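This section describes the prediction task in plain terms. A model, or a person checking by hand, is given the sequence of a single protein chain and must write out its three-dimensional structure as a string of tokens. No templates, partner chains or ligands are provided. The sample shown here is typical of the held-out split.
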Amino acid sequence: MQQTLTATAERRRHLRHLIEAQIMVLYPEFWLADDEDHLCGWTQNLSERGVCFSLPVLIPNRELILHIDYEGMGAEYVLVRVVDARQTADGDWRYHAAIERSVSSINALDCLQP
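The expected answer:
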């Protein structure tokens, strides 16, 4: 097991930081949801090119816009590509996503338009 963990760590190019920040999914159309709370969650860790976060529901879309709120230290919008989503023992969904790029609040929803 230790060998697997070491090999995984050596493959990573960017250091992961254990940061718990609130996120809100801005895509798909969050404003159409009956209960916006189901589109809010928390990060578990962040790196320069990736984010791990949890939500109470499975979102089938692979491309998402996340609003990450660093609580008093600013916020950012990022376009992410979901690599993996798995249900946890407590029923939430843990997502692993690659950060494609930062986007401004003005064009956050426009960047996914065909």
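For orientation: The domain at 15-112 is CATH 2.40.10.220 (Thrombin, subunit H).
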